[in-house]
Amino acid sequence: TKPTGEGSGLGLSMVYGFVHQSGGHIRIDSRRDAGCTVEILLPLCERGTSSDGEKLQSPREETMAAPARILIVEDECQVREYTRMTVGSLGYAVEAVACPATALDLLRSDAEYDLLLSDVVMPGGMSGQQLAEIALRERPDLPVLLVSGHFEEIASPLGQPDPRIAFLRKPFRRRDLAHRLAALLAG
What we know:
The chain is an alpha/beta fold. It is about 35% helix and about 20% strand. Helix 4 packs parallel to helix 5 (about 130-140). The longest helix is centred in the middle third of the chain and has 13 residues, at about 75-90. It is globular and about 50 Å long. The N and C termini lie far apart (about 40 Å). The relative contact order is 0.13. Mean pLDDT is about 80; it is low at about 60-65.
């Protein structure tokens, strides 16, 4: 749905990943000159244990985050808004920007941030990995979480990534993001 070179967007494959990992289904009804309807059908979730045996937390437990301010960098508007809402729903203060240059300006200002969360692949000449490396030179104690839909995008060309940079593969579950953020903020 986008011209070549303007990003891939969330994409049907990402939507499929979100729905599939939740045990759901997608129904798409597309008619010429009438538009498209997409229905996402998700199973009812009961408290208790997940299908992989992990004890589920109540929504209240999962949203009890320590106060922290997180800077999100994501070029895709819909993905940025989804990530901002998800991180905010966990109890964190959030600022979300579309490009690494804006993020660097904010990191170089007097603004206080407790964590940088960035997509890896972004247009404009600077990747999330490069942003993380610059940010860590200027703020060595800033935890960094990079997210990507493809492992090869986050693999270090030198083999061993900076241990101060954590990775999370897209699509990710809310609880996986919650646990990763909490661990990084705890040090």
